[in-house]
Every structure is written in C-alpha cells, then in structure tokens.
Amino acid sequence: MNAAARFEGPGVSPVFRARKLSKTYRMGEVEVHALRDVDLDIIEGEFVVLLGPSGSGKSTLLNILGGLDSPTSGDAQWRDHQLVGAGDAELTRYRREHVGFVFQFYNLIPSLTVLENVQLVTEIADRPLDPLEVLKLVGLERRIDHFPSQLSGGEQQRVAVARAIVKSPDVLLCDEPTGALDYETGKVVLAAIARANEQLGTTTIVITHNAAIAGMADRVLRLGGGRIVGETRNPRRLSAEEVTW
Ligand SMILES: Nc1ncnc2c1ncn2[C@@H]1O[C@H](COP(=O)(O)OP(=O)(O)OP(=O)(O)O)[C@@H](O)[C@H]1O
Q1: Can you tell me which atom of ligand 1 is nearest the CA of 61?
Q2: Backbone φ, ψ for residue 203 (5° rounding)
Q3: Taking the domains of the chain in order of start, what are their residue ranges?
Q4: Which phi and psi angles does 80 have, rounded to 5°?
Q5: Ligand 1 centroid to 175 CA: how many Å?
Q6: ipTM of the prediction
Q7: pLDDT in tens, 104-148
Q8: CATH topology of domain 44-70+85-233
C-alpha cells in the first residue's frame, strides 16, 4: 500500500506536488525499485521528516525533489517548475535559485574561512541574506575567520547549513544532516535547521535514521520498499532541545 501523502481541499495549495513517482534501477538482470508510485504534496513552510530503513528510497525522493535526479516515471513539480523532463540548464537554475542542500558530509572549501565559504554563495544568488546574520543564526558569529580544519564536525555542519540558507532558498533539503555528529552537536545543527525554517519560512525536508528527530517536524513520512507506508502529523513541534535519543 502507498499511503497517499496528498493534500486535498480548498485553501491548501502545495508547493511540491509529486504523482506516481517511480524510480527503477536496472543492474543486469536485477531490477531495484527505489520508488514505487509515490504521491506527495508539501505545503509552503512545512517541516517534513522522512524516516525509513536503509534502501527505502529516502535519498532518491529527496534528490528528485531537489532536481538532482529524475524518476523513471511519474510527475513532480515545485510551484510552476516541472522537475520531470526538464533539461539540465533548467534544473540547474531551479537548484541555484530555489534549493539549499545539506548533506551528511559538509563539503566546505578548506582554503576559505567560514565567512568566505558562506559569502561565495551570495555572489551567485539573486536575493542573498547577510552572511554575518546567517552565521549568527547558526551560532557561529565568533568563528567567522576560522578555516574548516579549525572547526569541529558540528561547527563545520553549521557552516554548511549557513551556506545552504544564505541564498534564502525557498526549500532546504537535508540528507542525514546529523549522521556524522554526536548527540550534542547533532542537536545544535538541528536547532539551526529549525530556526531557518521558522524564521525564514523555508520549506524544509530532513532525512534521518533517527526517529526521535521526527518530533521536530510538522509531518513525518515513513518510507519502506520505495513506498510511503505511514504519515503522521505532530500536533505540536518539539524544539531541538526537547528532543532526546
Ligand atoms: N545509482 C544506483 N544504482 C543502483 N541502485 C541504486 C542507485 N541509487 C540507489 N539505488 C538503490 O535504490 C534503493 C533506494 O536507495 P536510496 O539511496 O534512495 O535509499 P535510502 O532510503 O536513502 O537509504 P540510506 O538510508 O541507506 O541512505 C536502494 O536499494 C539502493 O541500493
């Protein structure tokens, strides 16, 4: 069964709309169904957590929504941007103008300082935020002249979050943002992501293996075998400080 994570009815207009998204990999004789007929709507400003075991299709779904991958069949749109069948140039523009990514590993430029890593993005963004303000938002205003090698993993991940949000993206997509971090540092990074969602209104999707993080979301989608197998809404979102695991 594919639980239909669709919004119906008046007054609700999703920013993401995916229908019957499927992704199949063929490896010789073997077919891997990474996604099977996924229907999904996400509304503006929503904080969605994607949970599910390894191989359930979380990254595949996130990458399609982020314009990094394309499905084998089905349809996906962000506002009026068609994400399926779009050319490379169009997808690059979509990503550059609208999407911020945070991955498990930070991919900072080692020869640039914290501030410079974040400033770099503002040079190609249409409506960037002030890099110093964003570094304040992630609690790194005192480390702006440090190089990545002089920072802890959690601090580097917060620079990566700042870099993702400084262009004021409409969408923030995070794939295991705390996967490489210890408990305390993970919480600080989650707090930074939640703050971007709350203060900037950024539609946020976070993939995690950590079910405790689900408490921070408006909505939790569980994937299994390439399908959405469960959907819950939290009546109240927990702050990063309230989450324990
Ligand atoms: N490039 C690829 N070639 C072949 N199979 C792939 C490829 N990318 C992903 N898959 C397969 O598709 C399925 C879904 O992968 P996906 O990375 O979306 O899962 P996931 O839920 O994000 O897993 P994890 O939590 O381990 O990151 C898996 O079975 C995976 O092996």
Answers
A1: 18
A2: -65, 125
A3: 44-70+85-233
A4: -100, 15
A5: 13
A6: 0.97
A7: 888 999 999 999 999 999 998 888 999 999 999 888 999 999 999
A8: Rossmann fold (3.40.50)
